[in-house]
Predict the structure.
Amino acid sequence: MSVLHSPPASAETGDSAYVSACPVGCEAPLSATDIILPEGPLLRCPDCGQLVSQITTARYWETMKQFDHPDYNQPGAPSQQERGSRVAQRRLNTIAALLERRPQDIRLIDVGCSRGHFVRAAADLGFQAEGVEPAPHIAAIARATGLNVYSGLLEEQRFPEQSFDAVTMFEVIEHLREPRTLLAECCRILRPGGVLLLSTGNTASWTVAAMGARWDYFDITRAGGHISFFNPQSLQRLAAGCGFAVVRIQTARMKFHERGEVPAWRYTPAKIAAELLNYPARLLGRGHDLLAYLRRPQRAGTTS
Ligand SMILES: [Zn+2]
């Protein structure tokens, strides 16, 4: 959802590029692609395929402001909320199964929890659920509903080592030029054997193959702060570089347009095509959503 909402005091400002190296940590220089955004061509890492925006530092922080607006991430229509709850429950059940524990015995924190939809779903299932959200107004809205939500960055909470059984982080890492710092902190606060679940968009998806520069995930105006775009390989490399073992990386869902974004005569056939392609996309790793279940190994250097 969101990560930082105002530039740190030491941040460079102005017209310099916000990202200058592969966020996954590869050393090879980035090269231009033929995906042309208003910020300039997306850059690609030759080692892991990560795509990176050429946004300026000033524009990056400008687009991040939307996450603290009181209207941000309001609950959607009832059908959307229902779908959201079903997805959250499925993910929470998977976490419990991987940990082989009852929800009551699982302490979980959702990083970038926004209004706390996932924290609420976890609490409803009996998890010891907490959240952390850097946008101060949105964090306060979440707390006002009775949820245990902290304001600020995860790193600022200074949780003791091995405090949590599970960490979740949805649509956060695409905002970060240095995601390794946050993943390392997740690893530190997880107990050995603990699970990190994270999600982001998939640039290896058929959605991107069809939409190219028009993929809404690339649109910095709609999707504030999106600067770093993953594929299954780059996500795997990031996870391994931060000390995690990969339990499972999966993709899901085809999507071409949102309702209302294009005329009905274009939306309806595209929606039908997306529904038909959902299943093969999932099988072949070409879905729009990229989801990774990762685990802090029991002992350093092992993968179980
Ligand atoms: Zn790379």
